[in-house]
Amino acid sequence: MKSKILDIHTHHLSSCPEQALLSCCMKDVTSAGFRSAHFLSIGIHPWFLSEEDFHFQLNWIDNVLATDCRVIALGECGLDKLCSTPYSLQTKAFLNLIKRSEDHHLPLLIHAVKYANEIMELKKKLRPHQPWIIHGFRGKKELASSYLQHGFYLSFGEKYQEEALKSIPADKLLLETDESKSDIREIYEQAADIRNVSLEELTAHIQENISRLFFNR
Question: 175 - beta bridge partners?
Fold first, then answer.
């Protein structure tokens, strides 16, 4: 299946919902975006997680996986050193989403804030078969290189280090809007300019990545 998706991670659907992968948690289930999305990634975000609701969120994940064919990825999920959720609980949620990623053969979109080494070590230990994608990457090219050596894909949004964006092999690159309301096409245009390639060439490479990751399962 050839995909028309351009934006692989957003919380705000544009006027072209068929071009976006909407990221949702349980709290979003009644939103207009959830109802109108063409493609979904579902996760347990470390910001919106407590011991009291963890099992409710996990049950919600399982129910949506069983009933909603729009789900083409899991996440976002991951580890965040700046949020108040205990690390042990973040880890428990992350491990559960990793398991479901493997069980359902779905790529994993990862929220990583100041826990890069831990996430890389976890991937090395678990050796997952499904792709792991760091969304909203803002690190330096040295961190990008470390992630790439561990087999990650990197997705860039509105804000990033230009040298890092230049350094990513085309077959590991994705683009997104995340919380920004920027037009994804503007992000593509800027990225093409920074990488000194045509917009058509960049779009073709990313479309190939998207088709391989999300639709060739």
Answer: 156
